């Protein structure tokens, strides 16, 4: 089956350049382009073999990063990336809360862009260090109330594996825990970090862990 990506961005030249990168550097067979959220949803519904969806935050139909929550609900296993010119803390956290797999700045150099998309395709969460730090959690963790030393050793192990992009099943296997036990530890970690999902937890914890 062909390996296909969808790029949703209302700037045609940017779509063209990104499509070339996906084919030339990341081995995609084809790229479906869309200039609005509605067009992107149509491409997703009509095309088989989609392995990556990329969305800009500033295009027709996109109210905010939260608009992508519906995309995640419909396609729970699809790698989804936001590629944006924004460096807003609100946009970053809203995108992660919506369930995307990464927030990629449009200003990244080509090699860094390829590395970011490879991270996302590999199942991990990508947020560049500069944006993670802009959330205010990385530079001064004590002042933000986040101190990983307050986690139990087991919670810290679970968090380490989450940041690596491991699924609950993989975490359970690696630590010889039951799936329910992993969920309990994750719930405690989320509460400590002040987040509600894996993506936001990984984005906040990664710089604190030196990742």
UniProtKB/TrEMBL annotation:
The Response regulatory domain, residue ranges: 4-121
Domain of life: Bacteria
Domain annotation HTH luxR-type: ranges: 144-209
Name of protein: LuxR family two component transcriptional regulator
Residue list for modification 4-aspartylphosphate: 56
One GO term of the biological process aspect: regulation of DNA-templated transcription
GO molecular function terms noted in the UniProt entry: DNA binding
CDD domains (alphabetical): LuxR_C_like, REC_NarL-like
Keywords: DNA-binding, Phosphoprotein
């Amino acid at each position: 089956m062909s390996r296909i990506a969808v790029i949703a961005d209302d700037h045609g030249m940017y779509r063209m350049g990104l499509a070339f990168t996906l084919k030339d550097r990341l081995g995609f067979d084809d790229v479906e382009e869309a200039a609005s959220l509605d067009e992107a949803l149509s491409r997703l519904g009509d095309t088989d073999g989609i392995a990556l969806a990329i969305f800009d935050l500033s295009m027709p139909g996109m109210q905010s990063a939260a608009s992508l929550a519906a995309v995640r609900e419909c396609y729970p296993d699809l790698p989804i990336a936001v590629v944006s010119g924004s460096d807003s803390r609100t946009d970053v956290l809203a995108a992660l809360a919506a369930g995307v797999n990464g927030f990629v700045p449009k200003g990244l150099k080509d090699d860094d862009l390829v590395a970011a998309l490879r991270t996302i395709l590999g199942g991990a969460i990508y947020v560049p260090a500069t944006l993670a730090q802009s959330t205010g959690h990385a530079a001064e963790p004590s002042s933000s109330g986040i101190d990983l030393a307050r986690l139990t050793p087991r919670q810290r192990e679970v968090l380490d594996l989450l940041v690596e992009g491991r699924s609950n099943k993989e975490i359970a296997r690696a630590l010889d825990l039951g799936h329910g036990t992993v969920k309990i530890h994750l719930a405690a970690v989320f509460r400590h970090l002040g987040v509600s999902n894996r993506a936001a937890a990984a984005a906040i914890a990664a710089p604190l862990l030196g990742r």
